[in-house]
Write the structure tokens for this entry.
Amino acid sequence: MFNFFQAYLLWRLVEKITLLFLLTSSLLHTNISAMPTSIGEDEVKAVFLFNFSLFTTWPTSAFSTNTSSFHLCVLGDEDFKEKLQTAVEGEHVGKRPVRISDLQDYKSTTSCHILFVSQSQEDQLDEILTYAKSYPILTVSDIKDFVRQGGMIEFYIFQSRVRFMVDPETIKEVDLKISSRLLNIAKIASKK
């Protein structure tokens, strides 16, 4: 049985995928009936990533002003950044407009509120997480054992579906608060 949060996430996912589908179709001038009907893994992750922002609270010190943008950052994967951009186009977190940043260096993460670490960055993961834990940044990745290595949210595939694992203790360490509604649908893990 769906609870409100799951129904909301599903609705948002369908809305964003429909928009992505229509946008892609119109840009390519192709017949809509010829478009694939499956939703890609990266598109699902992009929608989840945005929805994490709706169920996490940042300290006021994470924003320079009351109207500052909310920054979703991608470290190392241009293709995923484009899918994320499509998923969050025109969105807001509260009254803050969402901005996407494609980072080349993990030391540029200080203005990020959510940092997605691509698999291409696995060799630098220790340095990235050590650096990021000095700031109120929600770290997310699909790198295997990301949470065990100090990350906060890890995407994984179970029964052909994108799922996520959360380490609430690591999240608290950087003064972020995550909603119990999000925790209720996550696999809870600890790196310890």
